[in-house]
Structures are given as C-alpha cells and as structure tokens.
Amino acid sequence: MIDWGWVVDHLDELAGRAVQHLYLAAIAVLVGFAISFALAVWAARRSAVRAPITAVAGILYTIPSLALFAALVPITGLSVLTAEIPLVLYTILILFRNALAGFDAVPPDVNEAADGMGYARGRRLWSVELPLAIPLIVAGIRLATVSTIGLVTISGILGDRFGGLGFFIFEGYRRGFPTEIVAGAVPSIVLAIGADLLLVEAQRRLTPWEAAGREAAGREAGGTVHPRRDSR
Amino acid sequence: MGDGGATDPTGAPRTPGRPIDGIGTGATTVEYEHVSKAYGPAASRRGAPGAVNDLSLVVPAGRICVFVGPSGCGKTTTLKMVNRLIEPTAGRILLDGMDIARRDPIALRRGIGYVIQQVGLFPHQTIGENVATVPRLLGWPEARRRERAAELLDLVRLDPATYRDRYPAQLSGGERQRVGVARALAADPPILLMDEPFAAVDPIVREGLQDELLRLQEALAKTILFVTHDIDEAIKLGDLVAVMEAGGRLAQFAPPAEILAEPASDFVARFVGADRGLKRLSLVRVGELPLIRAVTARPGDDAADARRRALADPFPHLLLVDAAGRPIGWVDRGRIPDEGPLDAGRANAMSPLFSPRTTAKEALAMLLDAGVQAGIVVDVAGAVVGLLTLDAIVELLRDETGPVTGGAGAGEGGTRATAGPDGGGTGRR
C-alpha cells in the first residue's frame, strides 16, 4: 500500500517540509505565549479583565481554521502572516487560561509572606509567582504545541509555500496518492509527540521541587513513589 | 526569665541579647496612636479582616505583646498595619517614635520579621534559600547569605547540613514553622510580627514551638507582636497581653497576671475563662513558692537519730537521699527502725520531681496524677531543695483568686463557672 520507493526518493523534501512545519508551529506558540502571558499577568492583577479576555479568546477559538485562512488572504495575501495569525490566535485561549490558572494556584500565604518580607511587585511576579505557575503554564504550552503542530498542516491550503508536512497531505489527496498522505501525516504526528516529550522533560528540569514534594507526599501516604507524573 | 540559659549550638554559653554576632542587636518600641481601620460595607461582605477602633498602646522595646481576642476582633489587622500590609484609616503607628507612614513600605517590611500561620515558605526554593530571603532582597553577597542561613537554622535547632538543601515539602509542619521563624530573623530585624504562627500545628508541637520562642527571646530580646485566639498561649508567651473584642476595641492591655487577677470587664473575664485562677498557676514557678524543708537521711545513717528528727517534723515521711543529696525514696517515719543503720531497701515510692522552673500548674497536674500530697523540688544537679505540697498550691489559688472577685468570694466565681466562658454570647474561638 505504501510506495516506499516514493518515500525514499523524497526524503530531502520530507525533511525540508518537516523543518518548515516546526518553525511555523514554533513561531505561533512563541508569539501566542508572549501575548497570552502578558494578558494573564494583567488579568491576575485586575480581575475585571478576566471574563472579557476569556470570552474573546473563546470566540476566536470557535472560528473554523479554514475559514480564517481564507478570510485573511485578501488582507495579508499569501504571506507568512496569513499562516501565522490563525495559528497564534488559536493558542491564546489555551495559553491564557493555563497561565492564569498557574498564577491563581500560587498559595495565598506564599504571596502574603513575599509581600510581608518586602518583595516589590515585579520581583514577586518574576521570582515567586512565575516559578510556581510553571507546571500549569507548561501544561498549556504542551497542549498548544500539539494542537498547533496539527493545525500547521491546514495552512497548506494557502499553497505550496506553507503547510509544512501538510503540503504532502494536500498534494496526495489531489493526486489520489495515499503514500503521500501518509508520508505527510505520520511525521506530523511524530513531531507532535516528540515536542510533547521534550516539554515534559523541560518542565521536570525547571521544577526540581515538584519531584521532592511528590516523593515526600508518597512517603507520607505510604504509597508507591511515582518518579514522574504528568501534570495535565 | 532570669536564668538566661541560652547557649549556642556548640554549647558555649552566650551573653543574653547577643547570641550570634549581629543578631539581637536591638529592639524597637512600637506605639499605636489612636489607630483605626474602617472597612466599607462592600469590603466587609467580601470577608475583610476585622476593623480596629481607636487603638492606643505602647509595646516597650524587647517585649512580647500578644494580641488576643475572638475572630473578627481586628487583632490581625492591628498586626498587619505595622508592616503596612494594611493601611490605617486614622491614627499613626510609630517605631521608636518615627511614623511608619513616612517610610517606604518595601524598605520598612525588609526591616520587620514576619511569620504567618501557614508559614508561606517558598515551595520552589530550598530551606537555605528560604531562610536567606530578606538578605537576598537586601543584596547581601551569596557567601554571607549562606553563612547566615546556616546560623539561623542552628538557632532554631535544625541541622544546616541536613536541612539546607531540602525543599519545604520535605519537612514536617513543626519544622516548617521553625524555618519560618528563622527566615523572619534572617536580616536581624528589631521587630517580629507573628500572626497565629503556631495555630496550624498539633498541640504537642505547638507547646514545643512556644517554649522555643521563649528560649530564643531570652537571647534575642526582640520586640515581638504576636496574634493568637488562644488565651492560654497569650498568657504563656506575653509580657503584655492586649485583649481585643468585637469591633476592634481594646478591652484590656496589661501583663498576663493582671489580666487574670483583675479582668477589666465582664468580656475579659469571660474571655479568659472561669478557670482563670487555674491559669494563673501557669504564671507561677515552683521556685517562687514556699517550700517545706525535707527531713533527709542517707543510707547507712543512724536510724535512731533519723527517727527522732522525722518524728519531730510535721511531715510524716523521711526522705532518703544519696551522697550527692539526690532523692532515693520515702520511708514512713513509723517504720524507721529504732536502732542500727538505715538501709536503702526500706525506701518506697518516689514523688514527682520538680525543677524550680516547673510551673505551679504543671506541678499540680503531676501531683494529682501521682495521687500524692507532696513533690520533691530538685536543683539542676538533682539534689533535693525542698518539698512542694498540694496545700501550698491550693493556698496559692486562694490567695490569687481572692482579689479577682473583689471580695464577693466564691459566690461570684461560682456564677461564672456555671455561665461558662461563652455565657454572654461573646464566644471564644
């Protein structure tokens, strides 16, 4: 069923598309994170803006991606911007909500102690709240990364210059050539899983105290000690 | 206080007030001048802390002042106005005569130790980093921060080598609270604010932490403002006790003995409880009570002489002691042989042993528990000092409760006992 000969002949092209796929996704997640993080910091300080931001991000999330790509073409043309804007917008709901939940999860006594000891506001945010919010923030980044890697394929609708591995899916579909569809889909899944695993490991390294805490809790409960637990 | 037994971790004696270089270098007078905090109706609905109404009092430097009262009485608000986590709506708070409103809140807070009930250790930092928080904020170099963290862990009796690199989640509640105290002391602030610091740990650990705080205070002599809802804790820890009632009014501000002996109002009387006579016992040490002399003899002494001395004494027992004067046991004077040497085999059951530092309350409990009339007071070396009888403690109760009821005697006390501490609807806790 799979034409391995085609796959071998197109290895270079597959690798190039995979790289494109990754950078389209990476840009989207990075830009989305920057926007979402700023919004979450704002919302954590000013509760009045929580609901409106969540509502707008939610509405954006409901727009069908195909429609959004299509709608942007007259405005931004067939440019990277056209590919990235929808990808970025779709990350915001997830990233914003998780970052905000991360700030909310900082124990109030920890913030009170920080204030009482003379932390200035910015310093408290940076060196107390942010580290403690990491588990939920990273959980958001993982979700956003996996879904963005999936969505990048759809940007292939904008033509040959976009879509990453999605290019093969579209082309394979047009030509009725299943091998090419699979050659686009499977590596895309592998990229998503790989990125997810990488982020899990990054979080583990960023939050050494989490493991210590779990170990202590495990001992206390007399239960099995799990060396690692995914935080979802 | 008085028997400054503070030693540093190496066991070397220390001069009280200067346990570690640079720690305990001073204290500050805290003065409230007509301080009020009012909350609007909206804030009250959100469960804002209690209001405070025209509070004026002075906490002298180096003293522990305990704010105690039912929940919502404004005691926590009173505390948090000192480090400006809450700003008063009227009045001034002066530290050594200087209005705190003129100081930068961030700098002010770095100069005031702060300990809260839930401790608030930073979960993502090691114990060493947690303790060195304020030194880090103050920009001390790393080496000095590490050194200070180790000193302070030693001070609260946590081995730095064991604990420094652990995370808070790996400590017990009592250990975390000690770290909280160490962290508050890290930059050697002249003032400590403690907001129900021991309320979340179990009673046995709490007692240990209270004793530890008193031990530290003997050496550090900080000005400590301490909030609790537990009157027993207030009496035990406070040099001064400020009883607050609903609406943020100061009901009484006095040393604990005076609060117990002369409650200023029915509210204070109810709040300290109908057993305040008993509570006073915890303020009196065995060493301050009249002891009776024990008739003692050593094994091998002449029995006839011992018998004669024992019969001449009102106390019906002879106490056998060893060569160093340490008690071995009692011999009923009727059973002392008429002649020959005394032998240790005749001694029977011992009584509870007290140190002069034992409180009268503990002594009473031990005597009742052992079912005996008298306990033996021994010095540091274990040698007999004298005997404390149940009668002496009962006498003390009579003396101390006498003036409380203003001459009305047992009648009024009895009325309070039946009304119970919650009698007037101004319930504790």
Task: Bin the helical content of chain B.
Answer: 25-40%
CATH architecture of the largest domain in chain B: 3-Layer(aba) Sandwich
Give the overall silhouette of chain A. Answer: globular
Outline the low-pLDDT stretches of chain A: 223-232
Alpha-beta content class of chain A:
mainly alpha
Please explain how this structure is put together.
The complex is a heterodimer of chains A (232) and B (429). By secondary structure, chain A is mostly helical. Chain A has helices spanning 4-9, 11-45, 50-62, 65-76, 80-104, 108-117, 121-152, 166-175, 178-206, 208-221. Chain A has a single domain, classed as MetI-like (MetI-like fold), CATH 1.10.3720.10. Chain A contains 10 helices and no strands. In chain A, α4 (65-76) packs across α5, α6 (108-117) packs across α7 and α7 runs antiparallel to α9 (178-206). The two termini of chain A are 38 Å apart. The longest helix of chain B is centred in the middle third of the chain and has 18 residues, at 203-220. Chain B has 429 residues and is an alpha/beta fold. Chain B is built from 17 helices and 16 strands. Chain B folds into 2 domains: 30-254, P-loop containing nucleotide triphosphate hydrolases (Rossmann fold, 3-Layer(aba) Sandwich), CATH 3.40.50; 274-429, CBS-domain, CATH 3.10.580. The A-B interface holds A 107, 109-120, 123, 128, 131-132, 207-209, 212-213, 215-217 and B 83, 85, 106-110, 112, 114, 116-125, 133-134, 137, 166-167, 169-170, 183, 193.
Question: What's the helix and strand layout?
Answer:
The complex is a heterodimer of chains A (about 230) and B (about 425).
Chain A: H1 4-9, H2 11-45, H3 50-62, H4 65-76, H5 80-104, H6 108-117, H7 121-152, H8 166-175, H9 178-206, H10 208-221
Chain B: E1 30-37, H1 41-45, E2 52-59, E3 64-68, H2 75-80, E4 90-95, E5 98-99, H3 105-110, E6 112-116, H4 127-131, H5 133-137, H6 142-155, H7 160-163, H8 173-185, E7 191-195, H9 203-220, E8 223-228, H10 231-237, E9 240-245, E10 249-254, H11 256-261, H12 266-272, H13 276-281, E11 296-297, H14 303-312, E12 317-321, E13 327-332, E14 353-354, H15 360-370, E15 374-378, E16 384-389, H16 390-404, H17 410-419
Parallel strand pairs in B: 3-8, 3-9, 6-7, 7-8, 11-12, 14-15
Antiparallel strand pairs in B: 1-2, 1-4, 4-5, 9-10, 12-13, 15-16
Helix pairs in contact in B: 6-8
